[in-house]
Automatic annotation (TrEMBL):
Pfam families: ThiS. The lineage of its organism: Bacteria, Bacillati, Bacillota, Bacilli, Bacillales. This is MoaD/ThiS family protein. It comes from Cohnella candidum. InterPro entries: Beta-grasp_dom_sf, Mopterin_synth/thiamin_S_b, Sulfur_Carrier/Prot_Modifier, ThiS/MoaD-like. It comes from the Bacteria.
């Protein structure tokens, strides 16, 4: 099934300049693996050395932060979206 992925312009150099693109995957877990396999430079921006999502990165599957999900083996459905967001702090 096809999932629409969006990434911030700031890291689009890791996705060949694309900020929106389709990704084929059967589940959300597979989509996350495929994302970093297809665009390996993204892995450094999304995950720390322990393989956990970095603190300043938010990954949203439709309206849910994936950190809130109990399981990532969710089947992809038509119209599903994965958004990569970077939290900004400071003053």
């Amino acid at each position: 099934m096809q999932l629409e992925v969006s990434v911030p312009l700031l890291i689009s150099d890791c996705t060949k300049g694309k900020t929106r693109f389709p990704l084929e995957a059967g589940t959300l877990a597979e989509a996350l693996r495929t994302l970093v396999e297809t665009y390996p430079l993204l892995k450094v921006h999304l995950y720390n050395e322990q393989g956990e999502v970095r603190e300043h990165v938010l990954l949203y599957y439709n309206d849910d932060n994936i950190a809130w999900l109990d399981d990532l083996d969710i089947p992809i459905r038509p119209g599903d979206k994965l958004r990569v967001l970077q939290a900004v702090s400071g003053g």
